[in-house]
Design a protein that fits this description.
single chain, Rossmann fold, alpha/beta, globular, about 15% strand
Length: about 325
């Protein structure tokens, strides 16, 4: 018996997090990314629960029905790790396997680096480990001449919000389609924006949704983002250089717990120069990397695009843990 999917709010690390949870057994946390919600794990929650796990998918701080502090500095990686540590305790557990997609991937990995006593294994989806560089990341982008890289566009409060909130339906439809494996070759989500342009300028508005994204699915996401706006999630990007400063003491630290990486071969995050380099160097930064699963033709929203294959990879990894 897996039990029904339930929802509740839990106070963790001084804020209220909304939690979707299902099942009984060893705890697995699912951390979503941007611009998503706990809902991006809708296919993993019942599958992992049916396999004998207790699965909790929080709305990360700043998203959906979870609290969204006003202070931009409240979204740094050490604070996000604190949220997950407090969540494990609030759920009455002492350990968990942590899984993260997109922004959830660096959160999950940092959890494993900071607290391997709590996070006994880690799975990252779509975003490979990027070790701390010699200078702040935004400075590195500018030195490389990437002045229109999307990280830089997201820095000024209000600019990206105005673009993304103008038509939330079109924004989410464009981002989700253009970042997926269903977008035509050459029409993938671009991380480098046109000079003077916005994040959506090179995205495609599809005539119909891909098979993995139904109109009711889109409506759930649109309803939340119409209510909250995009400020909370964008604040993660506005801490990129601050994270570099705060993580100085962990320079060169490896991910020690058992780990797994899953991505799609058409994910722009790993097909670009930075992504290819990070993917190739991942074994150097993990003490126990048990696999890199690349799903042919899949894009960035991998747990939604290819749920059966992602679930199979997750369960194979979980069953292999001592």
């Amino acid at each position: 018996m897996t039990g029904a999917l339930t929802h509740r709010d839990i106070v963790c690390n001084g804020i209220r997090l909304h939690i979707a949870e299902q099942g009984e057994g060893p705890l697995v946390l699912l951390c979503h990314g941007w611009p998503e919600l706990w809902y991006s794990w809708r296919h993993q929650l019942p599958a992992l629960a049916a396999a004998g796990y207790r699965v909790a998918a929080p709305g990360m701080r700043g998203f959906g029905r979870s609290d969204a502090p006003e202070d931009v500095q409240a979204y740094s990686l050490p604070i996000l790790v604190g949220d997950m540590v407090a969540l494990v305790t609030a759920l009455g557990e002492t350990q968990a396997v942590i899984v993260g997609h997109d922004w959830g991937a660096p959160v999950a990995r940092t959890c494993a680096i900071f607290r391997p006593d709590i996070f006994r294994a880690v799975v990252a989806l779509s975003v490979p480990h990027r070790p701390r560089g010699p200078v702040p990341p935004l400075a590195m982008l500018r030195r490389a001449g990437l002045h229109t890289f999307y990280w830089l566009y997201f820095q000024t409060p209000g600019v990206a919000e105005a673009e993304l909130e103008r038509d939330v339906v079109a924004t989410l439809r464009r981002i989700l389609y253009s970042g997926s494996g269903d977008a035509p070759q050459g029409g993938d989500l671009s991380l480098v924006l046109p000079q003077g342009g916005g994040f959506l300028d090179r995205t495609i508005d599809p005539p119909s949704l891909p098979a993995w994204l139904t109109e009711p699915d889109l409506a759930v996401m649109v309803g939340e983002y119409r209510r909250t706006g995009f400020r909370g999630g964008l604040s993660y990007y506005r801490n990129i250089d601050r994270n570099w400063e705060l993580l100085a003491a962990w320079q060169g630290a490896k991910v020690l717990p058992p780990s797994l990486f899953i991505a799609g071969t058409r994910d722009v995050v790993i097909t670009g120069a930075m992504g290819r380099k990070a993917l190739a160097e991942m074994p150097d930064h993990h003490a126990d990397l048990r696999g890199t699963v690349l799903l042919e033709g899949a894009g960035h929203w991998i747990q939604q695009e290819r749920p059966a294959e992602v679930n199979a990879a997750l369960l194979d990894f979980l069953r292999g843990l001592a």
